[in-house]
Specification:
This protein is an all-alpha fold. It contains 11 helices and 2 strands, in the order H-H-H-H-E-H-H-H-H-H-E-H-H.
């Protein structure tokens, strides 16, 4: 399967890719905000009766908003795909034409090593310190959970953002436009901040919480460079999907990054030096040093695989063919 596609202009009765994307986002955020209070009330009730874990009863409301937006996003994938591609959702299997752990392993290794270099550089510069003694059992448990999250979330998000959004937008737009739009959405949904818990949950509280979660977009100190870094990561993942023709490498690269993002804050602590604008916080890639690292990864991927595989329709996979 080839990630390059022939562009198709929408007919007079067809919605453009941007219009479909806008409707999809409206569905995700409105649907998630409306559903969150009802799910929250149900969870509180069932947990109070002992039918659900007590941890759900203590979960903050913003987590319900976040999860229900994700559920709305997944539910909306099927009609979005059908409108963008004009075929059943089963076509998504083409992004994984065969089991290819070699491509996945290469991507995962690149993601893991790149952020390992960034983490070591920050610690060496004094931007973060090493966490004190941690029980081996807790550390192993964390590594296991981070590994599972890297595997599952890496695949799911690549199917959503690169498989459906990026690939579908290529039907009507250039690589740059499709990669830019899909990467902007990818950065958007990862940029929400943790709000203050509401005093009470009403049917409209989901909208208030969502607005509070989006306040980071209006704080320049928070917005830069975190949002551009997430955008850049999305472009790199889209480029590798386009170059390789499958999602295996991109899912691996994404998974390697997720492992470190889940682990970095567990292994390090803040120092008196600070300079979060340069070194980042416990999120690791929200500093300008992270920007430099991601630019380096992008240049490496382009020079290693991209420059010999056109980013125009008709490009063929070099990694999957074993010619890298």
């Amino acid at each position: 399967m080839n990630a390059g596609v022939s562009r198709v202009k929408p007919s007079g009765r067809q919605l453009s890719g941007v219009s479909l994307l806008g409707l999809y986002l409206v569905w995700v955020f409105i649907g998630g905000s409306l559903a969150a209070p009802w799910v929250y009330w149900a969870a509180q009730s069932l947990a109070g009766m002992g039918w659900l874990p007590e941890s759900l009863e203590r979960s903050p409301f913003h987590r319900y908003v976040n999860r229900m937006c994700l559920v709305s996003a997944v539910v909306g994938l099927v009609p979005l795909w059908r409108r963008l591609e004009g075929r059943s959702f089963g076509g998504i299997r083409e992004f994984f034409p065969r089991l290819n752990w070699r491509d996945y392993g290469r991507g995962w290794l690149l993601g893991f090593l790149s952020l390992a270099v960034l983490a070591l550089a920050v610690v060496a510069a004094g931007g973060r310190g090493i966490q004190g003694a941690v029980e081996t059992s807790r550390l192993l448990s964390h590594f296991w959970n981070a590994g599972i999250a890297a595997l599952v979330v890496g695949f799911l998000e690549e199917v959503l953002f690169r498989g459906v959004l990026f690939f579908g937008l290529q039907r009507q737009y250039s690589f740059a436009t499709a990669a830019g739009l899909s990467s902007a959405i990818y950065a958007l949904v990862h940029f929400f901040r943790r709000p203050t818990p509401p005093p009470a949950v009403e049917w409209w509280t989901g909208f208030q919480t969502l607005a509070s979660m989006a306040q980071g977009f209006f704080d320049l100190g928070t917005f830069l460079p975190a949002f551009p870094n997430l955008f850049l990561a999305g472009v790199i993942l889209a480029m590798m999907f386009r170059v390789t023709g499958t999602l295996w490498f991109s899912a691996g690269l994404h998974g390697g990054w997720i492992f470190w993002l889940k682990t970095y804050g567990h292994l390090t602590v803040p120092t008196v030096i600070g300079r979060d604008w340069l070194y980042g916080t416990n999120r690791l890639i929200d500093g300008w040093l992270g920007t430099a690292l991601l630019c380096g990864v992008g240049v490496f991927c382009w020079r290693r695989w991209g420059q010999n595989s056109s980013l125009f329709p008709g490009s063929q996979s070099r990694i999957s063919s074993g010619n890298s």
